[in-house]
Amino acid sequence: MSRPLSPTHDDASLQQLHAQAVAQLSPATLARLRSARHAAPRRTRAHGWWLATACSAVVALGLGYSFTLHPPVTPPVQVAATATDDNGDVLDENPDLYVWLGTTDLAME
After folding, report:
1. Does the reported pTM lie above 0.90?
2. pLDDT higher for 54 or 80?
3. If you compute the radius of gyration of the chain from its CA atoms, what whole number of angstroms results?
4. 90: which of 12, 38, 50, 104 is 20 to 30 A away, CA to CA?
5. CB–CB of 101/107 below 8 Å?
6. How far apart are CA 99 and CA 24, in angstroms?
């Protein structure tokens, strides 16, 4: 079983193989490769980004337009009925409570 080589060893061996392959090529072949590399137009992916941007803008405009044609319907708000209490004395305040709280230390606890 062989041990895996480190990435730096792989890089060095690939660079060595590349240098050997370049050394075996004739000068005429190297000149043709160099001129072909510099003459080739560079391909960019700018068209892909423009297309993606345009498509997302069209989708956003379509959704916005559909919301203006058919606005979302909100359900009517139901008003809760307030319960009336016939016992008026429940809500009355007793002034004796405040006098009692003022005389005791219970209010401070």
Report:
1. no
2. 54
3. 42
4. 104
5. yes
6. 110
